[in-house]
Design brief:
Helices cover about 35% and strands about 15% of the residues. By secondary structure, it is an alpha/beta fold. The longest helix has 19 residues. The two termini are about 15 Å apart. It binds pyridoxal-5'-phosphate.
Length: about 375
């Protein structure tokens, strides 16, 4: 019982990541200060160019956060009061929140049991004349079934906004996340696969019209200072964040590969472990494992989480409450039982540490600790 904890494995180790590229980061920050390029400016423009090229799109527009990416995308597409937007209830609140902020209504569709992504086969029955857009979320780093979703979007003339906040570098049928729908939204929240040292986000698109509109919206409707063409907001990325992200981008493919190796190791060692179901990787997708999320069956999830913590390992629950049961969205009048697969998932999911800085010794310790428990 009183066994001393010899290890401490957090759910992400951003300081360790910093130490691994300290010279690059310190230089990146110093340059911005020397140039006083704090808001917008050359580092932000360079980042937009590099991300567009990385995501195989023509344009990228840097913003304050991934949430603002979703918000300004819907706004630029003209989604507003009376409209409906289809999405998943098993995601971070931001995905549905921005729909509501614009006066539109989030319409939820249950998820696939194996991937936790929106079940594309259940979308069509939810489409009405008021439906304007679909927001699939590439949850935990694995793309949703974009071919089916695009087919529906084409048939009913709907926009598709990819919530790729957890999926930078992921691919579906060889296409980069963020290049498949009308717009892709990414977050640079520190614990995302490409994280800044504060808030940040970016959208990607092949449409010049949409890129231009979002560029206006993010800066008070203005391209030239004090000339305000339309009503907008303030949602710019700072130069320091852009410069840090530029320094980190060259490592992203390597880091994503490392996450995949750790996932593969977990898959090998944890297969056939009682009460544990492993995450499914679709054949047509390149999963970048922002999270490695298992299901713990038979009501044992919370106990396993405690057991891991007792041994110094932090695991996380994404997501504890599906969005249709959140207090903030109560006015939509959903009830328990409406999305049984998402509800069940919320009682079983457990995300294990999966970041690139984890050592072999640490991942072995994690799997041994799990196996000893079950
Ligand atoms: C992180 C995240 C967001 C929001 O990104 P922020 O940069 O924190 O605003 C939106 N959707 C999903 C699925 C996310 O994981």
């Amino acid at each position: 019982m009183n066994k001393k904890i010899t290890k401490s494995i957090p759910s992400a180790d951003l300081y360790k990541e910093y130490l691994s590229i300290k010279t690059d980061i310190d230089k990146a920050i110093a340059k911005v200060i020397a140039d006083s390029a704090f808001i917008g400016g050359k580092y932000v423009e360079a980042l937009e160019e590099k991300i567009a090229s990385f995501c195989q799109t023509k344009y990228a527009v840097a913003l304050n956060s991934g949430t603002d990416g979703l918000y300004l995308s819907l706004w630029a597409l003209g989604v507003g009061a009376g409209d409906k937007v289809i999405t998943t209830p098993f995601t971070f609140i931001a995905t549905a929140e921005v729909i509501a902020v614009l006066g539109a209504t989030p319409i939820f569709v249950d998820i696939e049991k194996d991937t936790f992504n929106i079940d594309a086969t259940q979308i069509e029955e939810k489409i009405t004349k008021k439906t304007k857009a679909i927001i699939p979320v590439h949850l935990f780093g694995q793309p949703a079934q974009m071919d089916k979703i695009k087919k529906l979007a084409k048939k009913y003339k709907l926009f598709v906004i990819e919530d790729a906040c957890q999926a930078i570098g992921a691919e579906f049928n060889g296409k980069k996340a963020g290049s498949i729908g009308d717009i892709g939204c990414f977050s640079f929240f520190p614990s995302k696969n490409l994280g800044g040292y504060g808030d940040g986000g970016i959208i990607t698109t092949n449409s010049k019209k949409l890129a231009d509109k979002i560029r206006l919206l993010r800066n008070h409707g203005s391209l030239m200072r004090y000339h305000n063409e339309i009503i907008g907001v303030s949602s710019r990325l700072d130069g320091i964040q852009a410069s840090i992200l530029l320094a980190k981008l060259p490592y992203l493919d390597r880091w994503n590969k490392k996450r995949r190796e750790i996932a593969k190791y977990y898959n090998n060692v944890l297969k056939n472990v009682k009460n544990i179901e492993l995450p499914k990787e679709e054949k047509n997708s390149y999963h970048v494992y922002n999270q490695y999320t298992i299901r713990v069956k038979n009501g044992k999830r919370d106990m396993l989480k405690k057991h891991l913590l007792k041994h110094g390992i932090t695991s996380m629950i994404y997501y504890f409450t599906p969005l249709h049961l959140q207090k903030a969205l109560k006015y939509l009048n959903y009830k328990k039982g409406d999305f049984p697969i998402a509800e069940k998932a919320s009682t079983e999911v457990l995300s294990l540490p999966v970041y690139p800085e984890l050592s072999k010794e640490e991942t072995t310790y994690i799997t041994n600790t799990i196996k000893r428990y079950v």
